[in-house]
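S.,

As promised, the magnesium ion run. Input:
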Amino acid sequence: MSIQEIIDKAHGEQRVVLTEIEAKQILSAVGIPCTETFLAATRDDAVARAEAIGFPVVLKICSHQITHKSDAGGVKVSLKSRDEVAAAYDAIMAAAGEKFPQARLDGVSVQRMAGHGVEIIMGMIKDPNFGPVLMFGLGGVLVEVLKDVAFRIVPLEAADAAAMTSEIQGKKLLEGYRGQDPADIPFLQEMLLKLSAFVEKTPGIEEIDMNPVFAYKEGAVVVDARIILSSR
Ligand code: ADP
Ligand code: MG
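Predicted complex:
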């Protein structure tokens, strides 16, 4: 499906929240790398998908009504076998059904387990005065507490992206701290520019949240994404 088809489908179903799978399809289409993520509507589907992807995999609840998946017991990582995937499917569906009895559960999403990198958050919010604004920061517990994020108004130029990655307080973590690999900073800046270009030419998006992005010595990958549309 094209970006517009995904957006139109959501509006057609009277919803503004895209699923993780839809959000990643859109971001991938504009050149932002995401873990390829598939819907599995049954336990058998989930097992078959996992085998096709190759272990280890991650399973997550797939429902438009559940945006904070871990809070609903809806994320299981490092699944290494058919049995673990089958058990995770049952556990996720049971936990989500219990926590959100009214929610429509589409099943689970299945994706490869990404190697750990420097945890980044990237996104877009709409400021009532300035319009779309991009956000960049370090992810993880530390930053949830410190709120160490940089903002720039769309459209971004290369110099803005460079400023965003260098002005966060946790910059040292990006540059490789205590033996950890440095993050591919030019690649992250490129992702910000792609996000800006996408936001600029696509009205009707209220919010984009990529949390986390794993950044590596070479490249980076979005492992969780959320997009909220403006209501029509
Ligand atoms: P939530 O809706 O709770 O934010 P996430 O999709 O972010 O759910 O998953 C929770 C956590 O699980 C992430 O912060 C990340 O640490 C881990 N995780 C999720 N997807 C993957 C993946 N594909 N590979 C590795 N770790 C992952
Ligand atoms: Mg997340």
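The first strand starts at residue 37 and ends at 40. The chain has a mean pLDDT of 96.

- D.
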